[in-house]
Amino acid sequence: FLRSFTNRRTDQYGGSAENRARLPLEIIDIALKHWKPYQIGMKLSPTSRVQDMFDEFPVETYGYLLKELSKRNIGFVELAESRH
């Protein structure tokens, strides 16, 4: 959902960085109804390429997502890169 190159949706989950981040943020919001913020985390790989999956604008996409996650005060965000 996050990667602009593979997310070609034309609904509220595609297009802009805000729309592509909608699903992970909705999942976090649901999790926050059941667990404390410090019990929730997310692992992201902003610039990893796996086959044809990558993001053309990782600073925009992940900058927006990280800003929104910060507002939710979750326990951690792990940034990782694959070595494929």
TrEMBL record:
Gene3D superfamilies per UniProt: Aldolase class I
Organism domain of life: Eukaryota
GO molecular function, one term: FMN binding
Pfam families: Oxidored_FMN
Keywords: Flavoprotein, FMN, NADP
Cofactor(s) named in the record: FMN
Ranges for domain NADH:flavin oxidoreductase/NADH oxidase N-terminal: 1-76
InterPro entries: Aldolase_TIM (IPR013785), OxRdtase_FMN_N (IPR001155), Oye-like (IPR045247)
Family assignment from sequence similarity: Belongs to the NADH:flavin oxidoreductase/NADH oxidase family.
Protein name: N-ethylmaleimide reductase
